[in-house]
Each structure stands twice: as C-alpha cells, then as structure tokens.
C-alpha cells in the first residue's frame, strides 16, 4: 500500500464532476449545491457551497461519490491491485494521469442538466447548471490529457443516459464508451477489453447484479451515502430506475460500508434507496422486521451521529401502521437527534388516473381513485409519527389537464397544514422513444395555473425549508457560522425567486394573450 507521499501510476483512474467531488456534511447540502447555476459566483460554489473533496498527497480522494467507490471495490475484488486503480478529484486529476494510464472513468448524475429538478431550476434561475458547466470543464481537461497519453475514456454514473440521448460536442469527442447501468456484471469485462485495446462499442448497458456480486466499499463515500437497495421497478416513465427490479443489499455489507465511512471520520450518513420503507420486502410489500433488524445493526456501529433518509413511496408508507412507523423512527434516532427527519415522496399529481398512466406501478397495491386521499393520509401519518414529508409534484405529465392542475393546487392547500415542503418539478422524459417528441415541459409550455401551483409550493418552502436545513445541518455537525451564512444566502435566493416569479408571470400572460388573439382571428 502506498504511503501518502508516494507517486502513484494507476492504469485505471476514476473521477466525478466537481459537484459530486465535494465535501458535504449532509444530504441537503449536496442537493442544494447540485441545483445551482452559474448565476452563483464560481468562488462561492468552490469554497462555500461545494467545497472540494480532500485528497491525500498522492492524489487519491479520501471521500468520493458512492458510485465510484462501488466501481473501485469491484475492480479490486476482481484482481486489480490498489496500484492499478485510483479514485481522484478534478483538482488532483493531472497528478495521477500519465503514460501509464489506460482507462479513465468519469461519472456524473446530471452531466447535461436534464435531471427534472435541475431543468426546473435553470428555467427560473437562469445561467448554466454547474453540473453541466463543470462536467464540460472536466471532459476538456481529460481530453487534453488523452491527446498526450492515448488512454480510453468511459462515461458513466446515474446521468449516463443523457449522453446516449442528447448530442454534446465535448462528450462526443472525448468519451469512447458510455456505460449506463450497474458496473459489477458487465463493467469488468468492458474495462479489461479497453485496456487490451478492444472497444466494447459506443454504448454498454450494465445489468443489475445479484446482491452477492456487490462488494463493500474501500473508501469513504460522499455524504456518507450507503446503499440499502438498488432499483425500484414501479415503472415511472420519468425515472431511470423505472424498469429495474429492487434488490436489497445484505445487512452485514451495509454495516461494513458504515464502518468504512466511520473510520474515515464521517459521522452523518445517508441511507440510499428508491424506497426506504421497502427494504427487505418482496414486490411492493414492506417487511418491517427486516428493516428494523437492519436499523438495529446500523445503530450498533459506534461513532455515527445522524442517519438521513432519501426516498420512499407513498403507497409503502400507507401499508405501515403508526406504531410501525414510530418503531422505525425510534431506531433512526442516533447521537444527534433531528426534529426534521425528512423523507422524499413522489406525489406527482392529485389525479391518480394520470399518475397511474405515467407510473404504472406507483400506486400498487392501492387503486388510482384512492391516490389523492393516500397522499393526504401519508402526510398525516408521517407528521404524527415524527417524520417530515418532502413531497414532489411533476408539472406537465403527458395527459395533464387544467382540471388536474386545479385539483393538485387544492391538494397542496390540504398538505400545507402539515409538516411539509413541496417541490414542483418539470416533466422530463428519460425514455429514448419519447426524447425528441417535444414532450419536454418548461416555461414556454407553462400555463397560468401551473405558475400559481408553483408559486404556492414555493411560498410553503420559503417558510419551512430554512428550519429543515438548519436542523439537519446541526445534526450533521455543520458549524454555527456556516449555518448562519447559509441562512443569509437562502434569504437572498428567496428574494430572487420572487422576482423571477413576477417576470415569468408577465411572460406567460403575454404568451397566453398572443394565443388568444391568434385563435380569435
């Protein structure tokens, strides 16, 4: 093993875009940073909102995105040595590249800015999304080194589908192979082929591995993210996990990932799953004993302070009793309790028939006609059992009508009385057959009803998000000074959003009037 001062000459180098190659204390910080555009000064992004991930003296990242950690662990388990593989950062990349380099893997969750939350942000905020801006800079840096050292470049990560779906001059020039999917089954053969000078084709799709094929990570993951499950399989047409069945990782592996993070100094961790409450279950049915058994083992790992949830499904919440939810909540209270233990839930629309048409398995085992009531009841259940609901709505779902928008606005009025924040996002197709059909939703297709709904949601968020953010930062060990500075920045952003609402309202009104006059003629 190398000491921190060694010069390394890895044949395989793994790096992610700068928004992922960062040091965030809590999940909400990472989400907030990856939604920013170039309207925010680069210095503020680099040194405050998205501080660089640390590296050792040799250029290895001491924390890195979980996806790269999984690739690293698969490579090392397959026979590559630590000398062969290095996970690094954009800042340290030139330090580890050289004539010894054979393959560079570059990862991003949103390389071209087509993630639904981020298309919404750029539409209102303006500028270029930092995930896109910094990925282009990273690929240009890699491209220059590629000309000198003649290695192959693989583009991957959760956003790899965007490189397959949309033309991008920099990516088309620099990337040799786009790898979309999970690495463990098909990625190893691809890497060995590239090292031997054999291209696997422009696009490679990685199959879902069996749980036993997934290896524990070998270094700390960004934000302390640990996988509980992979995939979802509920069929939402706007999600890349739609057709991937859910696979649960063994509890012992999850706890080993926790220990790796703990030993690296990470204290606040994130449980990554498309449906947290479904861990250990079969199909869409939850298994409370399996989830609680896992949480008991996780809680027994000494030295960790704060566990955060990622996603859950409303229909899964509704299959749990209040006592079961309280039991789970109690097992998630660690050294630093959080009053705002939030969980993201996709409500999408008040119209269950519309949701079912766009997300065939989302509502199961319930009926589409029950959906609006299920959303409200799920919010009530989570509020009284100690959680904080973060609902998402999708504006512009195919088949949406003005009545659907009004119904959803009335639903928001009901949810407002609970402990909630609500994020409306713009529909963005991910299916290759739908991309290019003109179904993308944006300000130019927005109706006045959409803007009223959007504004209503954000006024709720302007009141509630600062308290949620403050509480999570406190539990995650963020300094009081940074929390105070983030609060000041948040107030400035609120003022900007409100100005943008007024500008967009005038723009939509002018377009609607033009359409009215055209139709009258």
Characterize this entry briefly.
By secondary structure, this protein is of the alpha/beta class. About 45% of the residues lie in helices and about 15% in strands. It is built from 18 helices and 17 strands.
Shape call: globular
State the distance separating the first and last CA atoms. Answer: 77 Å
Walk across the major sheet and give the strand order. 3-1-4-5-6-7
The largest β sheet comes out as:
6 strands, parallel
Q: What is the beta-strand fraction? A: 5-15%
- Backbone CA Rg: 23 Å
Question: Whole-number average pLDDT?
Answer: 92
Give the % helix: 40-55%
- CATH class assignment of the domain at 1-212: Alpha Beta
Total helical elements: 18
The CATH architecture of the domain at 1-212 is: 3-Layer(aba) Sandwich
């Amino acid at each position: 093993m190398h000491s921190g001062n060694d010069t390394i000459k890895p044949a395989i180098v793994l790096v992610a875009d700068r928004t992922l190659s960062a040091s965030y204390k809590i999940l909400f910080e990472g989400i907030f940073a990856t939604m920013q555009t170039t309207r925010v000064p680069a210095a503020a992004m680099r040194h405050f909102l998205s501080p660089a991930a640390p590296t050792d003296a040799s250029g290895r990242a001491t924390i890195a995105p979980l996806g790269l950690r999984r690739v690293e662990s698969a490579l090392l388990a397959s026979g590559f040595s630590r000398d062969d593989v290095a996970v690094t950062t954009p800042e340290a990349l030139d330090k580890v590249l050289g004539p010894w380099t054979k393959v560079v893997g570059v990862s991003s969750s949103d390389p071209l800015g087509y993630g639904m939350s981020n298309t919404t942000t750029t539409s209102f905020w303006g500028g270029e999304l930092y995930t896109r801006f910094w990925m282009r800079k990273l690929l240009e840096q890699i491209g220059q080194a590629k000309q000198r050292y003649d290695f192959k470049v693989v583009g991957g990560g959760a956003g790899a589908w965007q490189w397959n779906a949309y033309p991008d001059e920099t990516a088309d020039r620099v990337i040799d192979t786009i790898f979309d999917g999970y690495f463990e089954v098909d990625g190893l053969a691809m890497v060995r082929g590239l090292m031997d000078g054999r291209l696997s084709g422009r696009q490679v799709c990685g199959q879902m591995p069996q749980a036993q094929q997934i290896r524990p990570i070998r270094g700390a993951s960004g934000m302390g993210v640990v996988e509980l499950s992979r995939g979802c399989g509920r069929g939402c047409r706007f999600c890349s996990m739609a057709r991937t069945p859910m696979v649960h990782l063994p509890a012992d592996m999850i706890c080993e990932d926790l220990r790796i993070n703990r030993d690296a100094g990470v204290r606040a961790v994130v449980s990554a799953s498309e449906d947290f409450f479904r861990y250990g279950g079969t199909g869409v049915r939850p298994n409370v004993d399996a989830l609680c058994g896992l949480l008991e083992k996780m809680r027994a790992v000494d030295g960790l302070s704060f566990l955060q949830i990622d996603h859950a499904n409303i229909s899964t919440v509704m299959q749990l009793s209040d006592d079961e939810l309280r039991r789970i909540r109690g097992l998630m209270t660690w050294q630093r309790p959080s009053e705002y233990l939030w969980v993201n839930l996709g409500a999408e629309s008040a119209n269950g028939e519309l949701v079912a048409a766009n997300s065939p398995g989302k509502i199961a085992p319930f009926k589409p006609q029950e959906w609006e009531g299920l959303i409200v009841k799920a919010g009530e259940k989570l509020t009284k059992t100690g959680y904080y609901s973060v609902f998402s709505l999708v504006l512009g779902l195919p088949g949406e009508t003005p009545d659907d928008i009004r119904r959803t606005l009335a639903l928001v009025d009901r949810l407002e009385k609970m402990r909630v924040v609500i994020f409306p996002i713009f529909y963005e197709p991910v299916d290759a057959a739908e991309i290019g059909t003109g179904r993308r939703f944006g300000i130019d297709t927005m109706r006045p009803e959409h803007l009223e709904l959007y504004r209503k949601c954000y006024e709720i968020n302007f009141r509630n998000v600062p308290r949620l953010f403050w509480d999570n930062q406190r539990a995650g060990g963020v300094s009081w000074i940074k929390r105070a500075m983030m609060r000041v920045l948040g107030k400035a952003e609120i003022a900007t959003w409100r100005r943008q609402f007024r500008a967009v309202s005038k723009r939509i009104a002018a377009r609607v009037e033009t359409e009215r006059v055209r139709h009258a003629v």
